[in-house]
Structures are given as structure tokens and as C-alpha cells.
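Sequence only, no structure available. Ideas?
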Amino acid sequence: MSLYREHGIVLRTWRLGEADRIVSLLTRGNGKVRAVAKGARKTKSRFAARIQPPRHLSLQLYEGRSDLHTLTQAETVDGFSAIGADLSRLGRASVMLEVTEHVSLDHEPNPALYQLLLGALRSLEGGDRPLVLTGFLLKLLVLEGVQPALEDCVSCGATEDLVAYDVAASGVRCRACRAGVPLQEGTLDILRHIVAGQLRLVLDEPESPATRGAEQVATVAVERLMERRLRSTGVAAEAVGSGTSSGPGADLRRRRQSAREMGPQAPV
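Reply:
I predicted one. C-alpha cells follow.
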């Protein structure tokens, strides 16, 4: 039982009792940590504003006898205010947080995943680039060792006229063997650049059928890894479709809250 300091990214929070919240954090050195923020639901709580996803925090935590730690101090490192103010970016960030919550392990350090998520959020904070989310999802697949096969047809081995992505086979198919998600023109080149570690070459591509197709392939590939549908993709699609974060105040607040709280339910 001891106090320790960490850096962590808030993945999600949920209510505990009348006044507290449980915070799920991806930490730099301790993997996923769940901690109680006591009094966080009270109006004057020092934690209330700081533990909102996807904030990046400097933390002090108390490790007790259970797996549920206690949050004793939290200072903002990255507030990601631009993400929080833009429904489109918040939707994309919500997908990243949901996926990270699912694949990360309790108290199992994963510095590569931590840096991947932090880098993606910082890039998204800098601008609503459509391929930030796609890049995050595909790089995650590479980290997990299950990146899609993109060089030749998974059925016959053909290297030309590759026109579809087969989710079940985790790879592309040629026209003669086509099955699965149709590939838009330019989508395969984007996917190949990202999987080869060359996201910077395509990161500033404007939104187009090719970028949307790449995001679709990345999404279904990650859903296969998770063995379930992503809940946050609906929030992201609604956000992108809205174009901006403008609109009636009450509706915007509702959708932002939905995006922040979206994710797999965890036991309390």
C-alpha cells in the first residue's frame, strides 16, 4: 500500500455512489488503472473538470489492497480543449478511447500504446485531419501483430486489380475473388502507407471517398480484433455528418456528453 506518481490519459468515467466517480486511465508505466475520484460529482470538487476524457494528466494515486486505486491529485498536462469544443474531433477521439479501453490490460505496462494514443490525440488537437483516426486504428493493429494483408489477394495471390477488403480473411481480394468491403480508388494506397509507418505522407489528405474508405477498412479490422462492434463509431459518424460543432446548445451538449461517456461498461 503506497502513494505513487504517474501520467495518464482519461479513457472514461462512471458514477460510484452518490458523490464519487471511477476513472479509467491508460498510464505511462502501469498500463490501465481504475481509480476512485472521491467527491468528483460534487459541485466544488477539485477533480470534476480535470477527469473528463480525453485529458492527459499528471497524477498521484494511492494503491490499496484492491485493484481499484484512489486518485489523490490530478494536474492537467494536455487539456485537449480544441477536441472538446469540436464535435467532429470529439467523435474521433471517442473511438480511440473506446478501442484503447478494450485492448489495454489492467496494470500491464504498454508504453507503445500509451504513446500511440497520446500522439494521436495531440495530432487531433492540432487539426481535424480525417486520417488521424485511421492511422491510430491501423497502427494499433500493427502493435497487436494483426495488421491487414494489403499486398496481394488473400485467396489467389494476385497483386493487381485488388478491389475489396475481406474482414474474415483480414486482407484484400482481387476482382476475380472479390468479397467484403469494396475499396474506393486511392484507399489501398492510403492503407499501405499507414501500415508501412508512413502516415506522415498522407496525414494531410483532405476528406474524400478514399479517406472515408480507409477509415471504414480500419474500423472493421479493429472490430474483428475486438470481436464486437464499436459503439463510438455512431457518435463519430454523426459528428462528421454535422460538419461543425454549431447548433442548438442543448443538443450539442447532449451529443458531447454521449461522446464522452461512450464505451464498454465496466464493473463497479
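Helices lie at 81-85, 87-103, 111-126, 131-144, 187-195, 209-226, 232-242, 249-261.
Hope that gets you unstuck.
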